[in-house]
């Protein structure tokens, strides 16, 4: 597996696959992966999952802001997964949660199609996201998930994420599990 450093954060490759920043041409493929995986696990739009997000068909534009980035996994020339980092949107006051949302990035829309699951691409994708968050000055990484995604939940636990209260205003009220990870520059 490729060693990921801040020097190669924008592109990781290994013969048949690469991780790179999203481009406009990737929008349909990314939306299809998210819709397909969501459907596979019963995460339907009517239940409040990320598949219902209005920006799903224009992810490149959504992640074009400062402090935001979305990467895709391209396998044998086809986009088959992705993940993004964005500042945690805050609508909660300091008294409503045990931590301020300042300095917290959110790991968003980390989905992989069946074709690349089990190929050990989740870790390098996560490492790129984590390194970006650190480089942007975030001190914590937050995510919301569901028990309906046991593989993802197991992966986040292995990475050291800890369950926490729901923070911010993600709009994903169906994701019953909130998790947070303290970021350090030496990881």
UniProtKB/TrEMBL annotation:
| Molecular function, one GO term | N-acetyltransferase activity
Please state every residue range assigned to the domain named N-acetyltransferase: 17-184
Q: What does the UniProt keyword field contain?
A: Transferase
Keyword Iron included in the entry's annotation = no
Q: Which InterPro entries match?
A: Acyl_CoA_acyltransferase, GNAT_dom, NAT_camello-type
The record's annotation in Pfam families points to:
Acetyltransf_1
Origin superkingdom: Bacteria
Which Gene3D superfamilies does the record cross-reference, listed alphabetically? 3.40.630.30
What PANTHER family does the database record attribute to this sequence? GNAT FAMILY N-ACETYLTRANSFERASE, LD18367P
Task: Report the protein name in the record.
Answer: GNAT family N-acetyltransferase
The protein's organism comes out as: Shewanella maritima
């Amino acid at each position: 597996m490729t060693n990921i450093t801040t020097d190669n954060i924008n592109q990781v490759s290994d013969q048949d696959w690469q991780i790179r920043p999203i481009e406009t041409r990737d929008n349909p493929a990314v939306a299809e992966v998210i819709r397909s995986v969501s459907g596979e696990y019963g995460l339907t739009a009517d239940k409040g999952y990320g598949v219902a997000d209005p920006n799903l068909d224009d992810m490149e534009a959504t992640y074009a802001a400062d402090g935001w980035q979305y990467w895709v996994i391209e396998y044998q020339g086809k986009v088959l997964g992705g993940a993004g980092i964005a500042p945690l949107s805050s609508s909660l006051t300091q008294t409503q949660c045990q931590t301020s949302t300042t300095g917290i990035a959110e790991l968003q829309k980390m989905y992989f199609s069946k074709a690349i699951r089990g190929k050990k691409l989740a870790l390098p994708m996560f490492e790129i996201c984590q390194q970006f968050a650190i480089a942007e000055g975030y001190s914590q990484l937050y995510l919301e998930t569901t028990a309906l995604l046991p593989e993802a939940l197991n992966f986040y636990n292995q990475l050291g994420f800890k369950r926490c209260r729901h923070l911010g205003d993600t709009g994903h009220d169906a994701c019953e599990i909130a998790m947070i990870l303290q970021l350090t520059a030496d990881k």
